[in-house]
Amino acid sequence: MDKYSLRVRTMQRLGNVLENEGDYRAAQTALERALANARTDAHRASILNDMGWVMMQRSQPVEAQKLIEQALQICETKLTHDAVHEAMRAQILDHLGAIYKYNGDLLQALDIHQRSLKIKTALGDTFGMAESENNVGMTWRTKGNLQEAARRFEHSLKLLQQVDYPLGIANGLMNIGTVLDDEGKLPQAIEQYHLAQQAFERIGHRHGSALCLDNLATCYDKLGEYARALNYLNSALTIYSELGDLEGEAHARIGRSQTLLALNQREAALVEANAALKLAESTRSVEQIADARGTLARALRANGDREGAVEQFREAISLYQNIGNLTEVATLQAELEME
């Protein structure tokens, strides 16, 4: 590798390190510098892919998709199909699949992730297989198939433990916690989230810690420990805001609205729900917009606005139907029938 290529790779690796630490703004700056200096198609494809993923972490899916599709086009039209470039193509597909999931196109997301998994299996890439299994699990969870999601998450975690990848292990622990949470196994979910939070804190990953705090709040809310839940949400919201994570901030505000309703602070809950919907719409995440509309419906109902509540319930149901989340559709339809 010549000195010029080494300099580009060093800038790119700096961006990767900053991303892993959760400092997405600084990561974007480093990667932009790397791209400006890149001279080969392989470097450009790799950097564009990394930049796209950072944009996803910053809740900018439209920009992310453009960058990642550029990377895939370069990889498929200008690069050879040797092991190195095939590994890059698989990673790009993983990221693209995540964007389709984010946009609510779950069948397309599953197809793309399976394509990636096939490439990585052929390459014998244990770490890559773990990533793809995790992505498939996330998509099945969104579709409401918790059994398949759990199977994929557990397989992914075992693979990550084989390669001893701390960040992946922390994410794997958290993802298993989400399935336990969905299944109503709250004590086990809380234990899993604490293990994940400790793993994130050991590597200094603030974004992961915030996700765990957010999830712990959800569990304590379900247990009726509302004051405790609100404290966890406040801590998570602070981190999300500092990191510029709009999706995380929206999720925390959704949780705050629900918890404030449980504490009978109806007006404050409505303020939080409206703020959550505004943030969710800015992220363009279909799933999160649906979550926010469902939350707003409950807040409107609590404040005596039946007509507004019915409208928001119907909007949320339509969105959940679009992404195939039949569990949430059934839940909201039951609530709507009570109006």
Explain what this protein looks like in three dimensions.
The structure is a single chain. The protein is mainly alpha-helical. The chain is 86% helix and 0% strand. The chain is built from 17 helices and no strands. It has helices at 3-20, 24-37, 41-57, 61-78, 83-102, 106-123, 126-143, 146-163, 166-182, 186-202, 206-222, 226-243, 246-262, 266-283, 286-302, 306-323, 326-337. α1 runs parallel beside α3 and α3 runs antiparallel to α4. The longest helix has 20 residues, at 83-102. It starts with a helix and ends with a helix. The model has no long low-confidence stretch (mean pLDDT 93).
Describe the SSE topology.
Elements lengths: L2 H18 L3 H14 L3 H17 L3 H18 L4 H20 L3 H18 L2 H18 L2 H18 L2 H17 L3 H17 L3 H17 L3 H18 L2 H17 L3 H18 L2 H17 L3 H18 L2 H12 L2
Helix pairs in contact: 1-2, 1-3, 2-3, 3-4, 3-5, 4-5, 5-6, 5-7, 6-7, 7-8, 7-9, 8-9, 9-10, 9-11, 10-11, 11-12, 11-13, 12-13, 13-14, 13-15, 14-15, 15-16, 16-17
